[in-house]
Amino acid sequence: MNRINQKIKEGKKILSIYFTAGYPELNDTVRILEELEKNGVDLIEIGLPFSDPLADGPTIQESSTAALKKGMHTELLFEQLKDIRKSVSIPLIIMGYFNPVFQYGVEAFCKKCHEIGIDGLILPDLPLDVYQSEYEVIFKKYGLINVFLITPQTSDERIKQIDDASNGFIYMVSSASTTGTTKGFGEEQQHYFDRISAMKLKNPQIVGFGINNAETFKQATRSAAGAIIGSAFIKHLTSHGVDAISKFVKSIR
Amino acid sequence: MTDNYFKTYPNKEGFFNEYGGAFIPPMLEEEMRKITDAYYAISKSHSFISELRSIRKHYQGRPTPVYYCNRLSEKYGGRIYLKREDLNHTGAHKLNHCMGEALLAKHLGKKKLIAETGAGQHGVALATAAAYFGLECEIHMGEVDMAKEHPNVVRMRILGANVVPVSHGLKTLKEAVDSAFEAYMKDPITTIYCIGSVVGPHPFPMMVRDFQRVVGIEAKAQFFDMTGELPDNVVACVGGGSNAMGIFSAFLDDSECSLYGVEPGGRSMEHGEHAATMTLGKPGVIHGFKCYTLQDENGEPSPVYSVASGLDYPGVGPEHSMLKDLKKVTYEVVSDKETIDAFYELSRMEGIIPALESAHAVAYAIKLAQENPRESILVNLSGRGDKDLDYVVDTYGLPD
After folding, report:
1. Stated pTM of the model
2. Is B69 known to be catalytic?
């Protein structure tokens, strides 16, 4: 069984952290992963930086630009991660944009992920129909889970299609825009969380965008299986550094 | 092939064979679907077509003429004709799709039009369309281009648009697209991103092409009326490729017409010195669609350069990418120097100052004329050069 499925099966609310590979320093990747696991994080999304990210807010964009400037690229990330399974056992996902994967070769990329022990991919700009017609076979061959995103605007019909195509979890974007919410979740979001919950999907949902403290984490995970923190963690890294990761995680739960 | 062609390409997912599509995050998926549905529902309606036709005739001044270049043809051989899109209102072909996009935006209940601009021609055209329909307008433009194309920045501001300077990266067209996308992503419900060429996610490459087809339809009839035949060669510059798709679309099933897309060769064919996407790029995904892309081995878009701000983009329209593979269109490269020479040559031989983008097409037409003195050449003169005057004279000086 894939580590992602296993983790979800444990039943505890999942705390997932996103960070950009190569940020704040080029060689921080492994240390950040180890620190996050040590402090009780359940799942990690490693961001492969890209220069034209359509789905990211300013904080993640800035970290990507900085990481690229320092020299982060696909092959280097694989190199940094080659022994990661000796020290980290929680599920790991690579999150990035489609073109770097396409240029690396989708099959070669998936094969490499499998060898390293990556459990899944999130490629927000890879359309469902293209995935199904061209790449699903490859993902399955290498045991990789592909995670799709839904937003408050996604229609019920589309959500059902995504649920059918998913085999790990659904990434539930909390807001219609990249900026997300900064002041907690309002009525609109609660309505959206309830609507999805009432759909009784076969895949669990993990909420992302707008989660930045213990309160929003609690709110988001009331009906969902877990929540993802990205920008807030990167901001914390920028101002407090890798040494203060434990403090950040403890502030969430 | 024509009727069938436009219904076949793109397919319903927006693909022109392997190119195009909508490689976009889900935050945009639903809005793109709504725009696509609205486009199919509204654009074929009698009232939409009537309104657009009336706008084209009474507001834009269409049809624009086809003009035979007496002195230029005399000097270089061949018979060189220009489709005078420089005489379209606002001085370029861009208004053809901007009026269509803005009319659609109005039907969709959008409040604000957002776009990028390179040379400022699309920005000016969209600001004009926004003024016409009473919508807000926000144009993203690289700081390098703002300095180079200052007259167009002033025009946009006079027209009431908010011009947002883009200061990251090379501060040119690609970064302007990034910035416009980012602004659009903040509020995709009340705003609409009216992309400036036959690029971006589906349905934009299809919509912009369809709105630009008027150029080819007019030009073909006018040329036939003037000569009793079809042109042997049709030439247009290609950055994203909107003016080229506009004129080529009328000739795709005429095997006796050779179609040439002219790409910017910049200072040289070295990395970062040109924007010859079709000639040196390979398939990739940029700004939500698949096309020939200038990029490095990690899939990062390469730095690009051209004397023409409207052409320096590391991607190109998906339909052009397909037409290249199908060998329906030949893509050629013209350097900055040849462009500047053609800019002055057309100005002094015919009294027509072309935009630097369009001067690329003129430069290639002159080459073709010299090589094929018996043939006719129809050039899409996509825009006028008023915006480029100071830059050209300050940088290259006046010829003797």
Report:
1. 0.95
2. yes
Q: What is the pLDDT of residues B313-346, one digit of tens each?
A: 999 999 999 999 999 999 999 999 999 999 999 9
How many Å apart are CA A89 and CA A41, to the nearest integer?
11
Query: How much is the CA Rg of chain B, to the nearest whole Å?
Result: 19
Residue among B89, B93, B202, B360 flagged as catalytic: B93
Which B-chain residues 9-38 have CB contacts (< 8 A) with chain A? 13, 21-31
- By the CB < 8 Å criterion, does A181 face chain B? no
Rounded to an integer, what distance in angstroms lies between the CA atom of residue B86 and that of residue B380?
Answer: 9
Residues comprising chain A, all counted: 253
Q: Where are the alpha helices (DSSP H) in B44-88?
A: 46-54, 70-76
Annotation: CATH topology of A14-248: TIM Barrel (3.20.20)
**Residue contact A73–B298, C-beta within 8 A:** yes
Angle, CA of A49, A54 and A56, to the nearest 5°: 65
With CA atoms as reference, report the closest residue to A98 among A90, A108, A106.
A106
**Closest among B288, B263, B299 to B278, alpha carbons compared:** B263
Q: Chain A closest CA to B177's CA: distance in Å?
A: 9
Q: Does A158 touch chain B (CB under 8 A)?
A: yes
β-bridge mates for residue B381, sequence order: B84
Q: Do domains B21-57+94-205 and B61-91+213-396 have the same CATH topology?
A: yes
Of B27-41, B319-333, B359-373, the one with minimum mean pLDDT is B27-41
Q: Is A71 on the interface with B (CB under 8 A)?
A: no
Pick among B11, B13, B29, B167 to test the A interface (most A CBs inside 10 A): B29
CB within 8 Å of B198: residues ≥ 6 apart: B204, B205, B208, B209, B212, B240, B241, B242, B245, B317, B318, B319, B320
Q: Are A226 and A13 in contact (CB under 8 A)?
A: yes
- A99–chain B nearest CA distance, Å: 5
**What tens digit of pLDDT does each residue of B261-299 get?**
999 999 999 999 999 999 999 999 999 999 999 999 999
Note the ipTM here: 0.94
Q: Give the residue extent of every domain in chain A.
A: 14-248
Q: What's the CA gap between A208 and A180, in Å, rounded?
A: 9
* Domain with residues B21-57+94-205, CATH architecture: 3-Layer(aba) Sandwich (3.40)
**Residue B93 designated active-site:** yes
Query: Per-domain residue ranges for chain B?
Result: 21-57+94-205, 61-91+213-396
- The CATH number that domain B61-91+213-396 falls under is 3.40.50.1100
